[in-house]
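Subject: sequence -> structure tokens, single chain

Hey, anyone have a minute? Need the predicted structure for the following. Not urgent.
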Amino acid sequence: MNAAGNFFTLEIIALFVLLLPLVSAMLTLLISDHYAWIVSILATLLLLVSALGAAYLAWAVEGGTLTASFPWFTLGGQSLRITLTLNEVSGLMMATVAGVSFLVHLYSSGYMASDDNVKGYFGMLGFFTFAMLGIVISGNLLVTFVCWEWVGFASYRLISHWKDRPGAAAAGKKAFIINRIGDLGFVVALMIIWVNAGTFDIASLAQSGGAWQGYAALCIFAGVAGKSAQLPLFTWLPDAMAGPTPVSALIHAATMVAAGVYLLFQLHFLFGPAGLTLVLIVGLMTSLGGALAALHQYDIKKILAYSTISQLGLMVAAAGAGAPSAAMLHLFTHAFFKACLFLGAGSIIHALHQAQQQSHTHFDVQDIRQLGGLRRKLPLTFVAFVISGCALAGLPFTSGFLSKDAILASLLAWAQQHGNIGYAALIAGFVISFLSVLYTFRLVWHVFFGSEKATASMDVQEPPLVMRLPWRCLPRRRCGSHFRGIRFTFQQAGLPSIPITGCLSAQCFGLPLHPYSHGRRCESSRWRQQLADSKFLPRQFIPGHCSKTGSTTCFPYGESRSRVDRRLPARTRAGAGDHRTHCGLGRSRAG
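Reply:
Had a minute. Here:
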């Protein structure tokens, strides 16, 4: 087959990969409620075909670029066209999005089997995947913005899937509103680009220039901050844990939160030195704050949520340091190990809910202080969780090690260009690496090690096979020193010795620190009082400090409650996660 015929074939496959999730969403609306049981099977099979097609595209398009254009409408006498661009990066991104979405569909077929609105759930999953694939393959900023808004709408519907739960409904509204605030910047950027360049085509914009690019880049970054949960628009992401766990795995792993980083990669040419410095500072501040907040949490899903904020901040910082390729590398590796961690957390929650129903006991199954010793009762979940946790911590011989050190290498190069002050960014990167080891193994220690607490007398069983398959496949992508089938050693990767040494040092100090400080960090009232008596730290930044008015203040990234949340009944506030609903057995409450 000649090159033109081969490109035509790839074009057809790309359209099928893009449209199959939309077909899945539409078919769920046509199926009668009497046959709702077939929805999960049909949706999962269609996503499997889409994922296989995306994997083929990622392999076939390597080194080339495929562009397809279709007429759309006319604006101001100029014809606007829908442009789809497929290259090596977008092909790999499509494979990542479609692959993780397929695994989430497969997992959801067991996790949401008895849900009252399974048709709406799988319909929104399919529409969400279609919109995200549209962002990835779009070569036109206006098309990107339309798909960007569709992703926001679908995420709102998925987060607030359980409409009878005030916490879920409020979290969905919060995510929707905060993302719209960031999207205002995106709209302003589109106006600036149209007035000055007269086109939305990304390839054409890369050839243009002018002072307007700096203003457009600043507005684009506002949209990125909202979608990828950067300061100050990060607060929606932890609250989004009120949605079903598979939704958390999809939104917080490879799709919605990754869209902002991917847009930074596409439009990196718009940012000048000052803009990149701002991106770097915001990314590092977000990453450091997210890591500190993860250490302050006890909810298993919120720990993973704040770790996502921290890792997204690292990606944004890498883009600001002039290494968007390092940001994309970490995006790809993070997609798989974070999806595995969320699905593993969902399996733990599901298994404990089943055990609660049998033993007639009630406790918060997402509170890691109530867990312990689960490695004996959930050995398969334990192995998958630990492997993915090692990748999150960036331990050697995992993909997370390579991608994190690529980011540290970019921070080192940036520091060498900007003198002594620039090394503060590199030191911040080392601190973030240290904290990532600390909060990861704090989570593993509380859940799988130590003495059994509330689960001591419970018969906890592994989840069904359909829920085990996704997170048994994902850890295979986290081990080994290879990426996309190209095997290389750490020296061949070209990573400087300073970032590798610093990262390993942070890990060596971080691993033994948590068992030493176990049970002594936040519980110490004497520690809090010493901080309160000092003049170096404002009282509102002290966890658990009581003000004169009697209200409790917490670390700003931590467990602070909004005014709306404080007005809810205590029973509702306690049910911010999946422990309020047993998804595998329908809508029966745990307590």
